[in-house]
């Protein structure tokens, strides 16, 4: 592509949109001016286009750093479907896989390379980046860079080390939820040079919050679903409870399915597609559902547990009403909801000594000697491992998550055994292969239909389901996959005998693990702070729900006028008189009536308009021909 391609042409030709969402074009133009950018766009704000459009408008490849394997695969699949060449370095790939993909980026027409921050530490990746024509580095979920963020990932701290290798390409850091402390931290940790900061307000006037305390949530859910038509999401923490509730709703005539990370990828994809198409009304899910989902007409999001903090809650609740029409975010709490949150957060607090013991036991269990093991993909029976080394399996799992957070290991999606396959033959050659080897056609075509990302990276497959679909014995399916692997048409890896685990760094002595105790103390403090903020949001009796969230994210609290608190009779009246608030606002800028109402949202609309009329009659303010109000200069 030529330099300077028109961004509106790019938007239309690749994505089918006639115009940008508010804030997107300003961000894109700063990127094209080679400025470093921090883009804070709430859930549904269209973050992906902010790096995809400028990358497509220029020659070269965009490197996208993301911590989420599922989201990387979805993004690659979506771009490929639009005719855009995108690839990802995924967990479980062999050295040969990585080498081939990186060669394609260096010598081919790849526009987007998705990888995890851990991959950036690899020598082979860094050496190839030096040979790439990089036009942009995009850091998704950028709050992971900051220890003040809710999902701190230490490998993110090393992203800035690639700056000397990318020939001055700008960095864009994107996140949907960050406090002011996180934003400041990003500037230093990513070594951003005079970054432009684009922060869209978190306030969404169409999102209506409700918090209710109930001892019978199931009946209340039915009542709410009958009151509010349209697509809905119900969030629950437990996988088993998602299945139970979805089954109960279906039995009572509500079309509902469950979704959680323990399901096979194929099942999740089918259920998500049904819900996206409107064939299923209610998705009952754990927080594994929703990342990267852009369904505009969700009218209702219900939480049956307190989330760990406002960031997670705002992202999940914010999946409602992306079309700008009214949407409701209900939180249905039982008498012990607060205590369950406290116990859950405490159980997840990091334990360094336990992590060291689990790391050593794991290395011994897998027979990985000091100084080796990097890139090993293996299986792990977490229950058997815990029993063998006398760990509580829940505590051992939390220790594994801590080791993963610091880039020492990576757990496969869903943390369960699965076979993987990737069709590596180019499309033209694949067609020629099918003509000359017709007996493999049913299997190849079925995999292409079911597994959208199978041509871009190793993808989880189910041999038994494939066997049933093409009416071929399971042993024959496995044999065909092995034959195709030998013929270099497919790369096939049978499921391991336990959960999938990748050893991402060479084994070291446990005392030298790159985990600092002071970092863990800070993580613990921030986790407790977020927990307390979530409890306050749900339990306070007088302030506007949205105002509480805005204050947490560093914005001036406003009154939404629609939440259960604003609708109650005991709402706190603002201390500053409305006429004084209007004069203060107009002393800094001219505003239209709508802008004034939005800026002074803690006041009733009727009070604002009445005060405006009086101030105009007194000659203190005036209304200009362009519709803006201003202070009347004497």
Identify low-pLDDT runs. Answer: none
Strand order of the largest sheet: 3-4-2-5-6-1-7
What is the number of domains?
5
The 3D shape can be described as globular
Mean pLDDT: 87
Specify the biggest β-sheet. 7 strands, parallel
CATH topology call of the largest domain: Rossmann fold
CATH architectural label of the largest domain? 3-Layer(aba) Sandwich
Distance N terminus to C terminus? 57 Å
Considering DSSP H and I runs of 4 or more, what fraction of the residues is helical? 40-55%
Number of helices: 24
CATH class of the largest domain: Alpha Beta
Nearest-angstrom radius of gyration? Answer: 26 Å
What percent strand? Answer: 5-15%
Full CATH superfamily name of the largest domain: P-loop containing nucleotide triphosphate hydrolases
Give the class from helix and strand content and strand pairing. Answer: alpha/beta
Give the strand tally: 21
EC number: 5.6.2.4
Domain Helicase ATP-binding: 28-196
InterPro entries: DEAD/DEAH_box_helicase_dom, DNA_helicase_ATP-dep_RecQ, Helicase_ATP-bd, Helicase_C-like, P-loop_NTPase, RecQ_Zn-bd, WH-like_DNA-bd_sf
Family: Belongs to the helicase family. RecQ subfamily.
